[in-house]
Amino acid sequence: MDRTSVDWHGYIPAITTPFTRDGDFDVAAFEGQMGWLADEGMHGVILAGTSGEWFSLNEDERAELFTQGARLGAGMRVLGGCNAFTAAEAIRHARAAERAGLDGILLTPPPYLVPSRAEIVEFYREVAAGTELPICVYNWPRGCIVDLDVDTLGELAEIDNVVAIKNSTGNFAGFLAGLYALGDRVRYFGIPTSELGADLAALGRGDGLMGSGAPLGRDHPDFWNALAAGERERAIELGARDRVVMTRWFGPDYGAKFGNQQAIMKTALRLRGVSAGYVRRPLLELDDAQVSIVRSTLEDLGIATVPLS
């Protein structure tokens, strides 16, 4: 496999996993959310990513999420987050993704452990040997403590199943180095929604953005649709709206400026009337002041909001 083995492109957000206030997976809410995402034109979605609170899902819940996501994801590419501390566990998640009929998997290095380059490469090799699905490597330094450099990413790109890289690093020079070194071999996600991102796309560099939550709905995929249609100025206008969200809610390393990232996204979606549910403990819902920040951001962008229940 290589980048030509998949058609992943555009905006593919890691979406939230709706929970009830008691912490149960809310299938009905998930169905509503998936319907909204499809109607808003997402090119794909990622299940059980960071935004999807993979860390608080047990194995059966993650498998159920994959099954429901495959059922509801018609018209979108659906990837399953298989993050785990061991290759054996990641393989079990990958096989659940296979059984559900997902299009591929997203996988970080083992978090918390701070593994060496050799350990990271061996981890991906083991998982790749245990699944037939295409793999997107997720470079997420804030959550995994390691930042995958170009040499490491190049070694991972040699693994047969690896077809894409999601790069969520604050090291933009490193991101560009990887993009130019590896973009002809694997699909590369993480292109900024800015004039620079538009220029990179015009040069054929990069395949899109695997963002978070899709709080602006159609604005996100339409940035990429506009670029594909040659409407650069329209794309830049849409991208500027995304930058408002990123600068008000998140820091340079993609960490939340208040509350937690998952609650921010769920609050934004619920303010739009989308059935995004609630976070699961130990995460906490936003307080009134924090909700006001999210609400004012949406309203400043001309997005109508509804009262929260």
Alpha-carbon distance between the two ends: 47 Å
The helical percent reads: 40-55%
Q: Give the total of beta strands.
A: 8
Rg estimate, integer Å: 18 Å
Estimate the global geometry from the Cα principal axes.
Answer: globular
Low-confidence stretches: none
Query: Sheet with the most strands?
Result: 6 strands, parallel
Q: Given the structure, what is the number of helices?
A: 12
Strand content: 5-15%
SSE succession:
EHEHEHEHEHHEHEHEHHHH
Mean pLDDT: 97
- Largest beta sheet: strand ordering: 2-3-4-5-6-7
How would you characterize the overall build of this protein?
- This protein is α/β, with parallel strands linked by helices.
- 44% of the residues lie in helices and 10% in strands.
- The chain has a 6-stranded parallel β-sheet, covered by helices on one side. Strands 1-8 form a two-stranded parallel ribbon.
- Helix 1 crosses helix 2 and helix 6 runs parallel beside helix 7 (172-182).
- It is globular and about 50 Å long.
- The N and C termini lie far apart (47 Å).
- The mean pLDDT is 97.
